[in-house]
Every structure is written in C-alpha cells, then in structure tokens.
Amino acid sequence: MSAASPHTPRPADAEPLKQRVCAAFDRAAATYDEAAIVQRHACHALLAHLAPETAPAHILDAGCGTGFGARILRQRWPQAHITGVDFAPTMVERARPVMDECFTADIEALPLPAQQFDLWWSNMSIQWCNAAAVFAEARRTLRPGGRLAASTLGPETFHEMREAFSGIDAYRHTLHFNEPDAIIRALDAAGFRQIELWREQRPIYYPDLKTLLRAIKAIGAQNVGGGGRSSLMGRAAWQKVEAAYERFRTAEGLPATYDIIFACAATI
C-alpha cells in the first residue's frame, strides 16, 4: 500500500517498485512490530483457521518480516522446522533468532528445492508481489498433501484515503490490490485445490490524519508505488485533504480500513 504525505522526498518512479518496497521495509524494521496492529491480527486469524490436527514438520514463512508469524507458529507446533524468507535484509536479521534458518530472497523466485515444505505460510506479503508467480513457487516448494495459508490486502484497503484525495490532484495515493477472484484464479492456475477464501474489513482509528500517515510509514507501507507525487503538497491542498478525510471521522477517530483477504488451499 502507499499513503500520501505532505512530505515526499523523491520521485516515486525513480527506481523499480520491488526495490522501493524493499528499501521502505528495511527502513521500517525498527518500528514495524509496534505499528503492525492489523498484521498481527491477520496472523492470529489465519492460524486459528488451520485445523488443529495439522502438524507440519517443515514450514516456510514467505515474507517473514520481523518473525512475528514464526513466533506464533512455533507456539502451535514447537517441533516444526521453520524457514523464513524476506526480501528486506534488515527484516531478515530481526527474524533470524526465531527461525531455524532465515535468508534474504524474493518469494516470486525462491532459491529452494521442490517439495520441501508441508506448510507454505505468508502473512500480508503477497500484495507487494505478482500473485501468480508467488503461488507457482508455493506450489513448487510444497510437498504432495501440503497446505498453503496466506493473507493479503484487497481493493477496499484505504478507500477513505482514495476518496479524500480524489479531486485534489491527479496522483495515485494508494496501490491497487488484487480482487478476490484474481487470487482464486491465480491459486487455481498454480495447481492448488480445496481453495478457501474469506474476507474481513478492519478499520484502525487515529486522532488525526498526520498520525494515521505516520503509523502507515512505521510499517514501511508508504510512497512505494508508481504514479505518486514527486513534489511537496501545498498547504492549501493539504488542508483540503484533511477536511475531506474528516468526513469519515467517527467517535473512535479517523479510520484507515484494511480489506484483508485470507486464503487456504492444498496440493494433491
């Protein structure tokens, strides 16, 4: 995802998307755990959906971040061998202590042998990637009878921000996320079966727009997509955005809604 800010230090299109995303998460590694409220919720919700009798011996945490997912996976299955992969080196260093092995790599092209894992797990990472490539790699690295469990973000994520900025300028202020049908098609094309998809919209509330944007920056999810503003936003325009966003205020504060898509599937 990408959030608008009154201070954008460089053109959004100055380097490839994947490189921008990686750099953003490297910078956010120190603040990520405290700010990643929705990511923690999604992690617990995804694990709760897996059948209690599931007992994977080898787990891949794809897009492992700081290792929060691995911690709760190990609580469920203390004997499992957990491998963590992330493309942000600083995230990998933070995750390494809770992994059996952990290394820097792109989950679209894993440097791993085929049929190595019983569970392919990914919490809030696929939205930064080509879903078809990710699921093809997941299918390749899973053993027969293996399971996939993933969460990602859907198209209604940050809809308040898109509406607040509409009419202010012609720039893109949020990324476009996959529709649920696109996730299902990508899983099916990769060879997965028993595909389950469910969805949850979860708002997080903040006292004002600047605090909301700082929280997004703290998880590394800002100014990473193409088509973003490359110059400072003027005071008058920023005030218009703040006024437009105020229409969404509730008794709890200003919402930033996350449209969470969960997916489970199996190999045969």
UniProtKB/TrEMBL annotation:
Read off the Pfam families from this record.
Methyltransf_11 (PF08241)
Which Enzyme Commission number(s) are on file for it? 2.1.1.197
Taxonomy, superkingdom = Bacteria
Keyword Methyltransferase annotated: yes
Q: Which residues form the Methyltransferase type domain?
A: 60-149
Q: Which UniProt keywords apply?
A: Biotin biosynthesis, Methyltransferase, S-adenosyl-L-methionine, Transferase
| EC top class named in words | transferase
Q: Name one GO biological process term.
A: methylation
Question: Which pathway does UniProt place it in?
Answer: Cofactor biosynthesis; biotin biosynthesis
* Catalysed conversion reaction: malonyl-[ACP] + S-adenosyl-L-methionine = malonyl-[ACP] methyl ester + S-adenosyl-L-homocysteine
Give this protein's Gene Ontology molecular function annotations: malonyl-CoA methyltransferase activity
TM region(s), chain numbering: none
Family (UniProt): Belongs to the methyltransferase superfamily.
Its annotated function is as follows: Converts the free carboxyl group of a malonyl-thioester to its methyl ester by transfer of a methyl group from S-adenosyl-L-methionine (SAM). It allows to synthesize pimeloyl-ACP via the fatty acid synthetic pathway.
- This protein is called Malonyl-[acyl-carrier protein] O-methyltransferase
Q: Which gene encodes it?
A: bioC
